[in-house]
Amino acid sequence: IERNEFVLHYQPQIDLASGTVTGVEALVRWQHPERGLIFPDDFIGRAEELGLIDDLGWLVMDRALDEVKQFANKNQVVPRLALNASVQSLLDLKFPDRFTSLLRKHDIPVDGVILEITESGLINELSHTLDVLTRLRMKSVHLSIDDFGTGYAMMQQLVNIPATELKIDRNFVKNMHVNSSDRIMAEKSIEIGHELGMKVIAEGVETEQQLELLRRVGCDSAQGYLYSRPLPPNELVRWLGEYHARMDR
Ligand code: C2E
Ligand code: CA
Ligand code: CA
Which residue minimizes the CA distance to atom 21 of ligand 1? Predict the structure, then answer.
């Protein structure tokens, strides 16, 4: 953190009905001077154990809110920025105020962001985070339940989480066209999400076949290698230009 070695890559999120890019998710990487690019699964857990995840989280959010503006389309519409928040950060009652001040600092409207929190993190700490989640929702901050289906939320807990989006975990998406239990998980997640008034997004979409199936069962949007891998800012700008040009044709 002191040596400023973290960089962000961004992955587009696509609305399945219109094909438009509605959002981008910021994903942190550690650009290590000797070891090269290190992926978050190799350091987020350590950062949490060492009590550094909060500092890292604010650094990432500050950087992403700055960088997202360059992804505006020709009508100056900036895609919604999806930020991953560690549940540890949500234990702090000051988080909501600090978060909205950061939005003001960058002149990004509250509708311009969504906070993704893993289902397992939420369920484990629900009694402690519910206050912060509710305050965030009262400030109209959008909340997404990430890795949905892996954290075993009970219906009763799910209805208490004031989320606006449900994100189906990529492990269900992966085999949903061959494995009926995964397909049922994905289908039911979409139904539950809609039933609770949430939008549903699928992550890890790699094939047309998966996309077709997701579209058929009413999923709202998708993200995955089929569209693009997470890219450094300058490469995403180029990808967006090409994508929009193809859409206009
Ligand atoms: P996540 O939030 O579930 O992010 C999605 C992961 O799936 C990303 O891995 C992304 O690169 C990968 N992915 C995207 N499309 C595809 C696809 O089509 N197929 C496959 N197989 N994978 C795909 P990544 O970037 O390695 O991030 C891993 C996890 O690290 C994230 O999972 C998230 O939980 C965490 N993370 C990333 N950035 C941050 C951050 O800034 N703060 C916190 N607290 N956690 C972060
Ligand atoms: Ca995420
Ligand atoms: Ca996920």
Answer: 204
Burial string for 126-138 (b: 16+ CB within 10 Å, else e) reads eeebbebbebbbe
CB of 81 closer than 6 angstroms to any ligand 1 atom? no
Q: What is the pLDDT of residues 26-61, one digit of tens each?
A: 999 999 999 999 999 999 999 999 999 999 999 999
* Measured distance CA(177)–CA(174) in Å, rounded: 8
pLDDT tens string 167-223: 999 999 999 989 999 999 999 999 999 999 999 999 999 999 999 999 999 999 999
Kindly state if the Cβ of 111 falls inside 6 Å of ligand 1: no
- What predicted TM-score, i.e. pTM, was given to this entire model? 0.97
- Residue whose CA is closest, atom 13 of ligand 1? 204
Question: CB of 149 within 8 A of CB of 120?
Answer: no
Neighbour tally for 92: CB within 10 Å? 12
State residue 153's pLDDT score: 80
SS3 assignment, position 35: coil
Q: In sequence order, what are the residues at sequence separation of 6 or more whose Cβ sits closer than 8 angstroms to the Cβ of residue 74?
A: 244
Alpha helices for 37-169 (secondary structure H): 44-49, 53-67, 95-106, 119-138, 155-160
Q: Is 225 in the pocket of ligand 1 (CB under 6 A)?
A: yes
